[in-house]
Fold Aldo/keto reductase.
Amino acid sequence: MRHTPLGRSGLRVSTLTLGTLGWGTDVDVDSAREHLTTYAEAGGTTIDTAHGYGLGQTEEIVGALIGDVIPREDVTIITKAGISRTSGDRVVDTSRGALMRQLDTSLSRMRTDHVDLWLVHTWSDEPALEETLSALEWAVTSGRARYVGVSNYLAWQMARAYSLLELARVPLVANEIEYNLLRRDAEHETVAAAEALGIGLLAWSPLARGALTGKYRHNVPADSRAAGRPALLEPYLDGHARAVIEAVCTAADGLGASPGEVALAWLTGRPQVSGAVIGARTLAQLTSALKATELAVPDQVIQALDEVSA
């Protein structure tokens, strides 16, 4: 496992970050323990979670396992605030008060006095951005967060947040966005802006909700996450997407690897991508994803994937 700087900051993250979105729902605590143990044994040190995941169960499981499976000082914890689902609906609140309350709740759940990276989970037009960012400044100055960033921000939103925090001498070091071979929108502006500002990108859904593993090429397996929610996968299986998936599978056959390994290797080699967040439902899925760290993809294959997915 490689560990790379997050942009131009001093924070280093694992090339593959362990995502916990399904912990407490699709993944029970015993399975989560197996996942974290396997990930740590592979050299991984970075865990990504959020206040709104699993109605709070996710962060509680993270807190129960850290210190047991891996020492707190050896793990980089990333969490996010600004989205909650306690009412049953998705509620976005990026006000200073809401963000502060959510961070303190996250720290309590995870049994730690600080997180290594704290992100605003999504953009919101209300309240004013200055208010939202004041919570990030508070988190750093109070010692609750070592570094701060944003998630799902467009290029101009990220740049505006960076400039406002720069006035407070608090660096914005990360933007966590969807980025994969089927979703390359970030390359229009966000990647270039991140490079210019020294902001590291963390990529969520690096396998396009499983589409890039090739398992949906012919049908939707009955035991897959998409089986009961076909709309979850529809945007990733149009004509263009299917051509990309076939190219990935062809490359995988030639390299003696799995399609998922090829897709992850392509992504983690992209400019400004500091890490890819892998969220596995099963230990077998996680083990397969971790093999991507050992895969060397020839330049001509990278170029072919670039062209077919452009």
Observations:
- The chain has a mean pLDDT of 94.
- The two ends are 28 Å apart (CA to CA).
